[in-house]
Amino acid sequence: MEEIRAAAVTALNMVLGFDASLAEIVLLSLQVSLTAVALATLIGLPLGAAIAITRFPGRRFLMILMSALMGLPPVVVGLTVYLLLSRSGPLGEFGLLFRPTAMVIAQCILVTPIIAALSRQVFRDLCEEYQEQLRSLGASRIQALRTLLWEGRNRFLTVVLAGFGRAVAEVGAVLIVGGNIAGETRVMTTTIVLETARGDLALALALGFVLIFIVLMINAAVYITKDSSEPFAD
Amino acid sequence: MQLSTLPKTLPNRSPTEISSIAEPRGLRAGGGILPLRIEGLSFHRDGQALLEGVSCCLDHGRSTVVLGPNGAGKSLFLRLCHGLLAPSSGRIKWLGPAAVRAQAYQAMVFQRPVLLRRSVAANIDYALGIQGIDRAVRESRVTQALMMAGLKRLAGRYARTLSGGEQQRLALARAWAVDPEVLFLDEPTANLDPATTRAVEDVIRIFHNTGTKIIMTTHDLGQARRLADEVLFLHRGRLLAHAPAPDFFADPIHPDAKAFLKGDLLW
Fold it and tell me: Which CATH superfamily is domain B15-25+33-262 in?
């Protein structure tokens, strides 16, 4: 018990004192996950929208596949990306393994299905609600699309944040493709795993605090943006 | 509908405002899209005929009420006329000179108003923007429309926080702003209480009095009596009567229409 208390005090000191090694890990975490989510949004949102508003053979299969991929085990994604990027793999020549880029790729693969599947749902609901009215007003397809994106901005933001939550909290994929190299590819989750295993609870706990704090902030941000732009609605 | 009855119940409007909006508006110079001729209109879904062989001609001046029990095909008929759905067979023809741009001359108000997540005024401005109306002109059109519907006071409010009746009046104001030659209304007061219903009916009357052709559905007989100049009676997807309102209500002729007027259940 005493040990845990001491660790907690050290952890708090590290957080409040902006400890350099801690800051480096947190920053890399955010950098990797934000980049991955941004890319996943660029791919997943248009994909979800396209599946929501178009009809093509295999559409249903794609929808089921996307939903299934939402539950992809991070370690499997990590392993797959590892095999692709390793020296002998098809993409080995780029030398990306054990680099932050590899971590971005892995997280992007994890998050894209989530953003695509949830975006499709959001888009379908929006279409159901607005389609007739927008057509009646004489909106073109482009105008309608722009209106739906704007009308659904809060819901899409929630979708993106759900993706970010998944990315920043996962450990399996980044551990395999990043290698948890100090000063290079250490992020919050991988460091927590390592430091806990080594018995250095202070750093692990400090990172745990930061991680929880970030997740809390994200959720607060979602609620605040919703409330300020949609008083009493929905 | 009597031309002389101007609304007295709408809030926040001075008599001068009312007289200024009771003038027929000349924004549609050069001829419009009416009359509307419908020939053998049918709509099938999953092998079921939801509308079958409806033919009629609707013209200026008289407000048309489409009457019938639930599931008669009233809303479907309106959506087909407005071009939101494509008929399975039959034709919908606008015969006026502007027929090629028919969409721009119509507006529709739905049973549940669909409002955008923005202010009351911005909702109207959006509709004008879609129609490509110049920004400089829009503001005055928005203000006019808000005044017409008695919503001036609420211009800056978030549209989705309005009450049901206010939302429906905003939907009407939005339609007013684009100055349609034909206004479709699908059960516009189905979810409203009697007082709010009256306020909405008053706005519909203003449309009629300023020269907009009203084509609306209702299953409310009182409303049909108050607003209809002519009645289309639909039952099970068929047009059973098309008659001037006084004639229809005095003697609907068709037994199903008689039963409907008496309040019997029609199956």
Answer: P-loop containing nucleotide triphosphate hydrolases (3.40.50.300)
